[in-house]
Amino acid sequence: MGTITLRHPAVAGRFYPRNPKALLADVQSYLSPPVEPVRALGCVVPHAGYMYSGHVAGAVYAHLDIPDLCIIMCPNHTGLGQPLSIMSRGAWETPLGVATIDSELAVALVERFPVLSDDADAHRQEHAIEVQLPFLQASRPNFRFVPIAIGTRQYDALEGLGRAIGEVLSSLGGRALVLASSDMNHYEGDAITRVKDQKAIEKILALDPRGLYEVVTSENISMCGYGPTVAMLTAAKHLGATKAELVKYATSGDISGDREMVVGYAGMIVR
């Protein structure tokens, strides 16, 4: 086994508060008002700074009955590491404590889909999974997770990863949540972004991973986490998903007031 890998926070104090009390207060404010939580197979959650997208992320987590086990996939923003990078042991630290990697699930995924590289480099500076953890820690303190950073744009690889996740989760039994960390269209006007995002959202609502891939590619929708979302939809369909719902949509302009250059945020649940 060797030494336990502890990943320290890369974006505490930037994307979210470094102070534990302030962070918990922030997260709890985004998780309210409380709603009746549902069991979901997958979800799409944004990953910008909490000031901008925390209210959308919180709306998703408030609607979820979080299981003990989560697979969290994100785009690789840093360019470090391998195209499909998993961490299969250790833990991630946030100001709220330590979240443990589920090694059994991670190893099973690598065995099923050997294209996955056990590679901490892709994760060290990446924000898109880290910002999800405080929400999960506040909602389900002892959850375990598997982090996967996706730097490939090849549809076959994304679909293959999704299928492997679906097959492994089916064989293990028990309940898990497959989480795709993604923002939507980036750095265009508010009106253009809303039109583009709606096209992508429609494909997710239709549980159509290939349709999502094609519309993002053909319409130049700069949705950073379409790869994780394609894999999540593929896995969720394998696990019997029948419907998706849009919990909340917003743009950064709703917070900043700047409508010229915005980023879109969609919070979605797949059941």
Number of helices: 10
How does the major sheet shape up? 12 strands, mixed
CA-to-CA gap between the ends? Answer: 36 Å
Order of helices and strands: EHEHEEEEHEHHEHEEHHHEHE
Report low-confidence residues grouped into runs of 5 or more: none
Residue fraction in strands: 15-25%
Helix content: 25-40%
Structural class given helices, strands, pairing? Answer: alpha/beta
Let me know the average pLDDT. 97
Tally the beta strands: 12
Shape: globular
What characteristics describe this protein?
single chain; 271 residues; alpha/beta; twelve-stranded mixed β-sheet; 10 helices; 39% helix
Would you give an account of this structure?
With 271 residues, the protein is an alpha/beta fold. 39% of the residues lie in helices and 22% in strands. The protein has 10 helices and 12 strands. Strands 1, 2, 3, 4, 5, 6, 7, 8, 9, 10, 11 and 12 form a 12-stranded mixed beta sheet that branches. Strand 5 and strand 6 form a beta hairpin. The chain is globular and about 45 Å long.
Give the helix/strand layout.
Layout: E1 6-7, H1 20-30, E2 42-45, H2 50-63, E3 69-75, E4 84-86, E5 91-94, E6 97-101, H3 103-112, E7 117-118, H4 121-124, H5 133-139, E8 144-150, H6 155-172, E9 177-181, E10 186-188, H7 190-205, H8 209-218, H9 226-238, E11 244-251, H10 253-256, E12 262-270
Parallel strand pairs: 1-5, 2-9, 3-8, 3-9, 4-7, 6-8
Antiparallel strand pairs: 2-12, 4-8, 5-6, 10-12, 11-12
